[in-house]
């Protein structure tokens, strides 16, 4: 008997309730750590993008201000 035959002979509640619950209990820590890692990584990427964007804004702001003041001196 193959795996499909074994699963076919089981009641619906075993296939759709008991097996997923067992999988969550067994692999729950792993799933939680992977999800936590991905959320942390996404947060760090967003912080990085915000900091780089802020840096670019500041550099453009101050370089345009200093270049316009140099033009006034000439």
Structural features, described:
With 74 residues, this protein is mainly α. The chain has two helices and no strands.
Alpha carbon gyration radius: 29 Å
Supply the number of helical segments. Answer: 2
Q: SSE order, as H and E?
A: HH
**Overall pLDDT level:** 89
Show unreliable segments. none
Major sheet description:
none
What would you call the shape?
rod-shaped
Structural class, by secondary structure, is: mainly alpha
- Percentage of helical residues? over 70%
- How far apart the termini lie comes to 90 Å
User: Strand content of the residues, in percent?
Assistant: under 5%
Total E-strand runs: 0
Short description:
This protein has helices at 3-9, 12-73.
What key attributes describe this structure?
mainly alpha, 74 residues
Topology:
Layout lengths: L2 H7 L2 H62 L1
């Amino acid at each position: 008997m193959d795996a499909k035959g074994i699963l076919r002979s089981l009641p619906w509640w075993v296939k759709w309730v008991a097996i997923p619950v067992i999988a969550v209990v067994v692999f729950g820590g792993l799933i939680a750590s992977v999800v936590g890692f991905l959320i942390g990584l996404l947060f760090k990427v967003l912080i990085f993008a915000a900091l780089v964007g802020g840096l670019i804004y500041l550099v453009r702001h101050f370089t345009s201000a200093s270049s316009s003041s140099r033009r006034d001196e000439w």
